[in-house]
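User: I need a structural model of DUF3072 domain-containing protein from Amaricoccus macauensis for a docking pre-check later this week. Nothing fancy, just the predicted structure tokens so I can convert them on my end. Input:
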Amino acid sequence: MIDDPDDAIPSKTGDPDPAEYANTSKNPRDWVTGDERMSREEAAYLRVRCAEAGVDFDQTLTKAAAAELIDQLKPQIAS
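Assistant: Understood. Predicted structure tokens for DUF3072 domain-containing protein:
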């Protein structure tokens, strides 16, 4: 997957294929809202994932820190 639509291979219409890139690949530290406290929904999701992985949940995380922790937990949760 690539980060920039300009680097994607054009589809038959000439537009970049959205399947070739994702906006979610932006570094969480670069998010405009990354330093805001995570929302209740994000906290609820992360609380469950932390429990599944056997990791302590920190309710004071920012959106960026929560996203990074979720990425770190994914391999532990999947196994």
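Before docking, keep this in mind: The helical segments are 40-53, 63-78.
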